[in-house]
């Protein structure tokens, strides 16, 4: 069976490998200009950019013969929890014939989650075999996330611009082709060596910017205009507050274990507002406490949770003396204008850091 799924960052490498191992043929469509054009054409006018990109990739995949779409639901007050049902209705109205599998949160129904795993895996594999494949996929995903984190540290220090990106691309390919858990772990180590071998300016102290916001626009370069690569080539070390392997955890790799994102956000926002609104606040606090120079909030245009977060961030910025920049993204957002805003923000942070150093006794 031909299967497709949301294209989001490096996760598509993992899901394609998993579908292949389950005996399916994965239809993987990287988002492009036509993708967004199709999604914008058929989506409701005020749908957010993740909705439109996903709709466009599904249409392109169905055009190539995809028979099943596998996606996720959501938990809490956010429209993303209804994307699967809305996408299915739009696609069926367009005349496409396919099977839709929506994995809802485990908290919303364990039995339905298990039933969907069996629908995707088919009747022939044992649960032990399925669990082994899931373990392998998880190992691959963790390896990709670790390599990506390292690339964000190397890129601002590289002597030859583009070398870190080239090494990262090679590392992704090595991890993609690894066939076993042991090979994936070896591939990760090889990827680390590739990035560490990039010639770097060892004494350079880059500005450090944390990225917060809605998960899709944070993780998918086509949605955020390759912001991590752009900032890295400006000499900025970027840290993403969200990785697919740990976005549900209470802290990211650099954060102190004694304070969770929810606890950090509580003085400003003490309840779930849907999406990653509360996390955007909490992660900004934690970035400030960990000495970051600034924060960039990435938000789809019309995203209510991030609009709530944006209204609170000025107070967080004032209390912790950490500048922030909000970028609302939609199909009309241009890269040239975005780069100009990023350059101005980076210049502001550099001047602030220099001023603070001059004021030190």
Automatic annotation (TrEMBL):
It comes from the Bacteria. It comes from Acetohalobium arabaticum (strain ATCC 49924 / DSM 5501 / Z-7288). InterPro entries: Dehydratase_Activator_Redct. This is DUF2229 domain-containing protein.
